[in-house]
Amino acid sequence: MSETFHAFALEQLGRVLPVTSRRMFGGVGIYSDALFFALMDDDTLYLKVDDSNRGDFEALGLGPFRPFGEGGEAMQYYPVPADVLEAPDALGLWANKAVDVARRARTRKRPPPPRPPRKRKG
For the domain 3-64+73-107, what is the CATH code? Predict the structure, then answer.
């Protein structure tokens, strides 16, 4: 990933949200208020999606991030269109939806792990 793109994308996001980034797995993870809502890889910014915002991306013909190529597993992150990345007002709408997705994902309750069987007395 080029440092120029990395700096540009973070600057654009920083105009609409408080953001921090951390290098990870050859890419960059992007956080807002400790919520992992975006990532960068190969000079592309991806936002977290679920059923609430996936249609925004798919309406533009965009598909999921596949870190291991077309045959690999799809992640729940979709690329940000270039015109959205360059327009802070539009980027703010898209990024805030992604933060909401991350917030919902974090607050979903996970079922507790199964208890080991009780030992019987006697």
Answer: 3.30.1460.30
